[in-house]
Write a structure and sequence with these properties.
Blueprint: H1 11-27, E1 32-35, E2 47-50, H2 56-77, H3 82-88, H4 107-139, H5 142-146, H6 152-185, H7 187-192, H8 202-229, H9 233-239, H10 241-252, H11 254-259, H12 264-271, H13 276-286, H14 291-319, H15 329-337
Antiparallel strand pairs: 1-2
Helix pairs in contact: 4-6, 4-8, 4-10, 4-13, 6-8, 8-13, 8-14, 12-13, 14-15
Length: 339
């Protein structure tokens, strides 16, 4: 950061100096300047002009340096020794430990949030994959041939399981390759910092699989329903927005869960079936909730999946053979009443 000091006197000199330095900023001679008056030690605000006001890193460094310098000058004018005051105001570092007495360096938060993002991304990606698979079969008229030998419900269920297993297998291969490559390249670092590596608890692995599988089947069913309703990819992009938002919202409010995992709002939101795969798993990683809450969230999630599959099968068997205009809500409601 290019900085140059120039002394000015009266207010007119300050204005002229600012005009001159504004031109220098425009030409690239300097990056910015500070306006420090004679009473700077008594002022609460200092003018700072820069070419890039969005450079938060430089702005933070300059602000910290100015504040430190002014405080030391004030202490010196008060007749106190700067070194003594600095020693008295020396900060301390919190030695964070969990209930098991283990040191915490933020690994729990990082690990929990990282696993949460894996669940979120994979559910979203493979759910959209199911929707596109349904639309592709519908556009190519392959589904008409398939329905001559299989029931619509069996076709939909096979698609959910098949595409899900293909996607999960692909993801598993990528994960193994990534671990092997990173493990070989990072072996010296791991050996030197083994005690600092976050540990994945067995209970986290179990519930990671549980909530991922349940979350996938819930959202894949909803995306399959969207694929059966629409006739092309453009309509699918519009219709999938409500489904996508139900999984995006829990990620957006996850910061509230992190602040108070056992709060009333956290408990209630984590029991909502559409939020459980993300929020309940996050609570398990941060602070293990009571077992009845985990069991209730799983039961509610399974019940919602069964209801979603029943509704999707009703819509799927009619919508999969519908082409052209996108159906309205009253038309979809009539599809549910067909026997």
């Amino acid at each position: 950061f290019k900085l140059r000091r120039e002394a000015v006197g009266s207010d007119e000199d300050i204005e002229m100096g600012q005009l001159k330095m504004n031109q220098q900023i425009a030409s690239g001679e300097i990056d910015g300047y500070l306006v420090l008056t004679k009473d700077v030690l008594n002022e609460e605000r200092i003018s700072y002009v820069a070419k890039n006001v969005g450079d938060f890193g430089s702005r933070s460094q300059i602000s910290e340096a100015i504040n430190k310098t002014i405080i030391e000058r004030r202490v010196s004018q008060a007749g106190l020794k700067t070194e003594t005051v600095r020693d008295l105001m020396k900060s301390v570092t919190l030695d964070m430990r969990n209930a098991r007495g283990e040191k915490e360096r933020g690994q729990t938060f990082i690990l929990s949030f990282g696993l949460l993002m894996i669940i979120y991304i994979t559910i979203l990606v493979y759910g959209v994959m199911v929707m596109r698979g349904v639309i592709e079969e519908k556009q190519s008229r392959i589904v008409e041939v398939l329905l001559s030998s299989v029931r619509p419900f069996d076709l939909m269920l096979g698609k959910l399981i098949g595409i899900g297993l293909v996607g999960l297998t692909q993801y598993f291969v990528w994960a193994i390759c990534g671990l092997l490559i990173s493990g070989v390249t990072a072996l010296p670092v791991l050996a030197a910092n083994w005690d600092k590596i976050p540990r994945i608890q067995p209970v986290q692995i179990v519930f990671f699989v549980v909530y991922f599988v349940l979350g996938y089947f819930l959202y894949a069913t909803l995306y399959a329903t969207v694929g059966a309703i629409v006739s092309n990819e453009e309509d699918g992009q519009q219709m999938q927005l409500p489904v996508t938002m139900t999984i995006v919202i829990p990620v957006m409010i996850s910061s509230m869960i992190m602040r108070n995992p056992s709060g009333t709002a956290s408990v209630v939101l984590s029991l909502v079936p559409f939020f459980s795969p993300v929020l309940m798993f996050l609570r398990i990683g941060l602070q293990m909730p009571p077992w009845w809450q985990i069991g209730l969230s799983i039961v509610l999630l399974i019940g919602t999946i069964l209801l979603a599959v029943w509704v999707a099968s009703k819509i799927y068997r009619v919508g999969i053979l519908m082409y052209g205009k996108r159906p309205t809500l009253p038309e979809i409601w009539r599809w549910l009443k067909y026997t």
